[in-house]
Amino acid sequence: MRDNVLWRKQSRIIMLLADKLNISPERALDLYYSTKVYNQMTDPKYGLQLMSDDYILEELIAELREPLQQR
Fold first, then answer.
1. Overall domain count for the chain
2. What 8-state DSSP symbol labels residue 48?
3. pLDDT value, residue 71
4. What is the maximum alpha-carbon separation in the chain?
5. Alpha helix positions (H), the chain
6. Is the pTM here over 0.70, yes or no?
7. pLDDT digits (tens, 9 = 90+) for 3-29
8. Rounded to the nearest 5°, which phi and psi values hold at 66?
9. Nearest-angstrom CA–CA distance, 38 and 35
10. How far apart are CA 21 and CA 42, in angstroms?
11. In angstroms, rounded to a whole number, what is the distance separating the alpha carbons of residues 48 and 12?
12. Which of 71, 67, 70 is nearest to 35 (CA)?
């Protein structure tokens, strides 16, 4: 995937995350960069960047909830 297309996709996902969690885009950006989803998005072997924004958002939220579920 071309870098500028991937960048725009990541931007949309970060904004969706901010809206869904009712947090600032800056906080959503920090959260996004700390996840496995981010690593998978930047590695073409996973193919995650080909999935819909909503699917990636759900994967991202599920990953962010994992530590809460382990308590």
1. 1
2. G
3. 44
4. 40
5. 3-21, 25-33, 36-41, 53-69
6. yes
7. 899 999 999 999 999 999 999 999 999
8. -50, -50
9. 5
10. 23
11. 14
12. 67
